[in-house]
Design brief:
The protein is of the alpha+beta class. It has one domain: Beta Polymerase, domain 2 (2-Layer Sandwich), CATH 3.30.460.10. The chain is 38% helix and 28% strand. The chain has a six-stranded mixed β-sheet with strand order 3-4-5-2-1-6. The radius of gyration is 13 Å and the shape is globular.
């Protein structure tokens, strides 16, 4: 398993640990001139849950993949938090901003993988 696959798996587990929902993994490797190889998009129901998901992702990636984000942006209002792991960008949304920005549609040329909710 590559380092990137390990990182993606740890991010997914970190999201699920805090009951993050509607996880989508967008594989951008077949698209030219992208800023990263993968987008991982998910959502929490409240700003508090979004913050908890971000903290959980940091913990899982540090322990499970020996990796930490180069940058985390958006924690102040926690409506849309972006986490930069170089090859992987993680987007943790509240439902309304997620629907508004609709990143899945923006990157519809990517190979999208829906991860079933755990509940």
């Amino acid at each position: 398993m590559s380092d990137t696959n390990t990182l993606i798996e740890q991010i997914k587990e970190g999201i699920q640990e805090k009951k993050g929902k509607d996880i989508v993994i967008a594989d951008l490797t077949g698209i030219e001139d992208t800023i990263c190889k993968y987008f991982i998009i998910c959502q929490g129901n409240t700003p508090t849950q979004v913050g908890a998901i971000v903290d959980s992702i940091k913990e899982f990636t540090r322990k499970g993949a020996g990796s930490k984000p180069f940058a985390v942006d958006g924690l102040r209002n926690a409506e849309w938090v972006a986490m930069d792991y170089a090859d992987v960008l993680v987007h943790v949304f509240l439902p309304e901003p997620r629907a508004f920005y609709d990143l899945e549609h923006l990157w519809e040329d990517a190979k999208l993988t829906q991860i079933p909710n755990l509940d």
